[in-house]
Amino acid sequence: MEEITMFLDEARDLMDKALKHTQMEFNKIRAGKASPAMLDGLMVEYYGVPTPLSQASTVNVADARTLLIRPFEKKLILEIERAIINSDLGLNPQSDGEVVRLSIPPLTEERRRDLVKQVKNEGESGKVSIRSIRKETNEELRKLLKEGASEDDVKKAEEKVQQLTDSHIQKVDQMVADKEKEIMTV
């Protein structure tokens, strides 16, 4: 049935988006190595407008523990420093008037464990999103049953939704395990 296929495709798309979102959240969690993704979501005041740091400067990795932020305009250096200090990154920026340097300190064992907890929470949020997509899709399929769709078609579609859910949750679990390994590797 065409409507069933449409619901299954939509569920797959939404679950893929939930996976991508979870991966983006994981990228923001630092694993002891310098990565421009750590600064994703950081906003700076640019002509009175909150602007993503990536749109007001270039961010490069100088070495494994240092990020260099080169603003497009020198007057942004103070705004960039303020944004970093006010963020929850726990980093101290240093500037020389041209670039802002961020030294990434090595992670303590306690901090690694906290980051692993954060990763597990993000993973759980991703799984919850996927399960709610399953629930909504199954509700839509049951509405089709009331509208005259065959019971066998709806049952098969619900099984496919469950298979989609299982495979996406398995991917989230793998992402959590990979990120946890990355964080705990000294």
What's a concise summary of this model?
This protein is α+β, with helices and mostly antiparallel strands and 186 residues long. The protein has helices at 2-28, 77-86, 109-146, 151-184; strands spanning 43-46, 49-52, 57-63, 66-71, 93-95, 100-103. It folds into two domains: 2-28 and 108-184, Ribosome-recycling factor (Topoisomerase I, Chain A, domain 4), CATH 1.10.132.20; 36-103, Gyrase A, domain 2.
Reported by name, the CATH topology of the largest domain is Topoisomerase I, Chain A, domain 4
> What is the top-level CATH class of the largest domain?
Mainly Alpha
User: What is the radius of gyration?
Assistant: 22 Å
- What spatial order of strands do you see in the largest sheet? 3-4-6-5
Mean pLDDT, as a whole number? 89
Helical segment count: 4
CATH architecture of the largest domain: Orthogonal Bundle
The general outline is elongated
- How far apart lie the N and C ends? 53 Å
How does the major sheet shape up?
4 strands, antiparallel
Counting structural domains, the number is 2
Compressed to H and E, one letter per element, the order equals: HEEEEHEEHH
User: Can you tell me the CATH superfamily of the largest domain?
Assistant: Ribosome-recycling factor
Secondary-structure-based class equals: alpha+beta
What is the chains' assembly state?
single chain
Number of strands: 6
Stretches with pLDDT under 50, minimum 5 residues: none
Proportion of strand residues: 15-25%
Residue share in helix: 55-70%
